[in-house]
Design a protein that fits this description.
This protein has 293 residues and is α+β, with helices and mostly antiparallel strands. The protein is 31% helix and 12% strand. It folds into 2 domains: 48 residues, no CATH class; 179 residues, Transferase(Phosphotransferase) domain 1 (Transferase(Phosphotransferase), domain 1). It is globular and about 60 Å long. This is Protein kinase domain-containing protein.
Length: 293
């Protein structure tokens, strides 16, 4: 794939769909449509090539050898996940059962570690991009590599900062950039874990002006002297230690995704303690336009 030129790919996109499908007759698949108005051909091909590069891993959505274009869209095929995505399992202000989350997290951490071994950063880890092969999360697939890039590649801030966006990205100015590192995915994984365990976000944006993030950072810096924020109180000490490592504001000190393996046999949620305050409604909205409530 890496040796193919852009011109060769352009020609391959014009191959008839029936010719491409004939070799995969009977294979269930999903088609990803990318609107040409919003995406350059080179960006589409970059996502497709990354998906092909990673397809050997069992916890990454398998890109099939089908890519074509319509007058309005670029399209490629990938394996079909019959049980929708992780977001679809979430219950508002409740989350997902811990055992299912642990199954999912082990696979997700493995997928991110594999990407790192290939020198790639996902940059868009969130429940909507974790596909499910079954509702019990025994098999999951990380998908959507539209923002993925090489490790060390200079990246700019996105138009909008999401709850999953790492603080070092949130504070980037419009002309500034930083080098993409696995710590970006680690942060997003930590936020994802909080979200699926509780059914709401820990904050809206990881910036000092966000009161929920500000209270977390104060506790993170001085846990002996600052009280744990109320909506974190239902986690066990082991889970807090894990999340504290994944969500370290300083990216140089942030734990890698594989640290989760050290906590998989410990309980993550206290059996009886509930959060003493109900999270405000503003923390329940999904940045992708969905509602958790």
């Amino acid at each position: 794939v890496g040796s193919l030129t852009l011109e060769v790919f352009k020609k391959r996109l014009d191959i008839s769909l029936s010719e491409m499908l004939s070799s995969l007759s009977g294979t269930p698949m999903a088609l990803k449509f990318v609107h040409k108005k919003d995406t350059e051909l080179q960006d589409f091909l970059s996502e497709y090539c990354i998906a092909l590069t990673l397809r050997a891993h069992p916890c990454i959505a398998t890109a099939l050898g089908i890519a074509f274009q319509t007058p309005q869209h670029y399209v490629f095929a990938q394996e079909l996940a019959l049980a929708r995505d992780l977001f679809s399992l979430m219950v508002p202000k409740v989350g997902i059962p811990e055992q299912q989350i642990k199954r999912c997290t082990l696979q997700l951490a493995s997928a991110l570690e594999y990407m790192e071994s290939k020198g790639l950063i996902h940059r868009d880890v969130k429940p909507e991009n974790v596909l499910l092969c079954d509702p019990e999360c025994r098999r999951i697939k990380l998908t959507d590599f539209g923002l993925s890039c090489l490790r060390g590649q200079a990246i700019k801030a996105l138009p909008e900062s999401l709850p999953y966006t790492a603080p070092e990205m949130c504070v980037l100015g419009p002309k500034a950039h930083l080098e993409a590192q696995p710590s970006l995915d680690t942060w997003a994984l930590g936020v994802l874990l909080f979200c699926v365990l509780t059914g709401y976000f820990p904050w809206l944006t990881a910036v000092p002006s966000d009161q929920y993030y500000r209270s977390f950072v104060s506790w993170h810096r001085s846990p002996r002297f600052v009280s744990l924020p109320a909506h974190w109180e239902h986690f066990t000490p082991q889970a807090l230690e894990m999340l504290k490592g994944l969500l370290t504001p300083n990216p140089a000190l942030r734990s890698p995704a594989k640290v989760i393996m050290n906590y998989i046999k410990t309980p993550w949620l206290l059996p009886e303690i509930k959060s003493r305050v109900r999270p405000s409604r503003e923390l329940l909205g999904s940045p992708s336009g969905k509602e958790i409530a």
